[in-house]
Amino acid sequence: MQGVGDRVQGVGLLRVLIAGGGTGGHVIPALAIAREVRDAYGAEVRFVGTARGLETRLVPEAGFPLELIHVGQLKNVSLATRVRTLLDLPMGILKCVTLLRSYRPQVVVGVGGYASGPAMLAAILLRVPTLAFEPNAAPGLANRLAGRFVTAAAVNFEETRRYFHGARVTGIPVREDFFSIAPKAGGASKRLLVFGGSQGARILNQIMPTILFPLLRDLAGLTVLHQSGPRTEAETRQAYLETGADESRWQVSAYLDDMPARFAEADLILCRSGASTMAELAAAGKASLLVPFAAATDDHQKKNAEVFVGADAGRMLLESELNSQALIDTLMEMLRDDAELKAMGEKARTLAHRDAVKEIGKMVRELAG
Ligand SMILES: CC(=O)N[C@H]1[C@@H](OP(=O)(O)OP(=O)(O)OC[C@H]2O[C@@H](n3ccc(=O)[nH]c3=O)[C@H](O)[C@@H]2O)O[C@H](CO)[C@@H](O)[C@@H]1O
After folding, report:
1. N or C, which end of the chain is more exposed by having fewer CB within 10 Å?
2. Any atom of ligand 1 within 6 Å of the Cβ of 197
3. Domain limits for position 55
4. 76 — alpha (psi -120 to 50), left (phi > 0) or beta?
5. Do 212 and 342 have their domain in common?
């Protein structure tokens, strides 16, 4: 087996800049890539993000340095904000040029999200090799603009390759612990995990309290853990309290730090179908009821969910079909059927990309060398 020293021979110290962030869907795979290039190739890794993304908490907690740049929003904002964002863009690119000149990374990895666009553009201008990471079937704005000019790209779907130069289908890196989750035995004491992606999902926060009481009444051993997102934690907890359901059988939390442990406890997961969420369901081999976010770019969450439905690895309820009756009926049916939960979990596991992070790490190493 090669040691770290052997693998970095000829490159000197590998320096990697990872750019992007915003939501967990960008930051969490970025951290998996950072750990891989650090541990496998001895790389020094820095991040560049913006002050309003989840990176401000998760990146320092993981022990990596983070530089902040100012980048405004372009999507779902007023015309005035869009104009301001475009006017600010040259400053953002200039700041990234300065950063690249002082840090001198051999590779810049763009994971999508606010800071990704200016950093990738700066790297392209300075001819620093670039790797784009795109987990969704349809790329977001930053990757769509930079896609043709990057040196290489790591994607999750075959159909996504056409947006990029040098794309390979690698899958999405997820935290290693998801892969070692053992199947649950089934039986009466079931656990339902409800989570709405890194920011929570208002629709799940509103509908769950409407069915909580009858759900807990009719399934005697059931407990519910509900992640609400930080913005609506208090009102979601209040709505749960007002159901009068036994408080020892449910818990509302703004954000769950140890997601692999929360997945391990769950028999069924009711969630959005963001890209990393799907990769984690597959890695963990968990049964799911998926509610795609209808306003996602090109309806990509529905496409993500359809892959699971097509493989009998999960069920889907579209937002347009979601009402209290449909939800409680589906949850009851699934939670009462141990054989279905088990079979679904096994099917989900077949969709996992075990080596995604290793393949992406290798691509970074190749670009550097
Ligand atoms: C509303 C929206 O636009 N969502 C997008 C966003 O979703 P979002 O940011 O929710 O992304 P994903 O579903 O891909 O990933 C969420 C990540 O956050 C983690 N997590 C979540 C909640 C929590 O309490 N603790 C925790 O650790 C999950 O384990 C997972 O690793 O980025 C994804 C990847 O580009 C897209 O596919 C989604 O469509």
Report:
1. N
2. yes
3. 4-172+354-368
4. left
5. yes
Number of residues written out for the chain: 369
Same domain, 166 and 197: no
ipTM of this complex > 0.90? yes
Q: What pLDDT sits at residue 8? A: 45
User: 115 vs 49, 111, 183, 299, 365, CA distance in Å?
Assistant: 5, 9, 39, 23, 22
Task: Write the pLDDT tens digit of every residue in 208-238.
Answer: 999 999 999 999 999 999 999 999 999 999 9
Q: What is the CA 178 to chain-centroid distance, rounded? A: 13
Shortest-distance atom of ligand 1 to CA 136? 37
Residue 107 and residue 16 in contact, taking contact as beta carbons nearer than 8 Å: yes
| Neighbour tally for 52: CB within 10 Å | 15
Is 285 assigned a ligand-binding role in the annotation?
no
Number of domains comprising the chain: 2
Whether 356 and 280 have beta carbons less than 8 Å apart is answered as no
